[in-house]
């Protein structure tokens, strides 16, 4: 099994298309395929903040649900958009407001179609993916070794939001424990969620959210090759959005 795990896209549709071409995919009609049968895996947070969240959502729906040529796990932004589409009261902030603004420019028929597609995509998705053939687990914010195989509420919170402490830093961002430092497994854990300037490999974990929407780059991690491929972002650079770690 050959996979290309793609980091947080956040509405950066043009960069996603460029990354697919860089990875050797060809565009067929309205989706991308690889002649060697490689499988793209989206690590969540498809939408919010970027310029084209609806187009990203439609492409991923087409590849995952319609063509069954890709896989997807949801992120926290996906969860919030899902709850918005269900009609729940959610705060339109931290990027959701940009997706909602895009959505509201559509006519009612297109809105209904987009809403139905995303609800289907989200409800069909596993909380995280165990890909035994690729020796990898794909989870939006990562997963502790002891949680693999579990799907309870505690695991869902971890997979969507990371190892949160319940506290916040001076900028209002959640403080998260560095769970990757303690991972001892032989299976790759591939995740995103926390923007870093360069892919961060600790033990057999790799964070591939390289902050495309914040002006850095969009990254894929290829298995079994164990290599990263990145393309530059077209968005303005916001350096304050990136996290650094003591080991760097």
From TrEMBL:
It catalyses: P(1),P(4)-bis(5'-guanosyl) tetraphosphate + H2O = GMP + GTP + 2 H(+). Its EC number is 3.6.1.17. Residues 1-196 form the Calcineurin-like phosphoesterase domain. Its cofactor is Ni(2+). Keywords: GTP-binding, Hydrolase, Nickel, Nucleotide-binding. It comes from the Bacteria. Signal peptide: none annotated. The keyword Zinc does not apply. Pfam families: Metallophos. SUPFAM superfamilies: Metallo-dependent phosphatases. It is an enzyme of class 3 (hydrolase). The keyword Cell cycle does not apply. Asymmetrically hydrolyzes Ap4p to yield AMP and ATP. Belongs to the PrpE family. This is Bis(5'-nucleosyl)-tetraphosphatase PrpE [asymmetrical]. It comes from Ornithinibacillus xuwenensis.
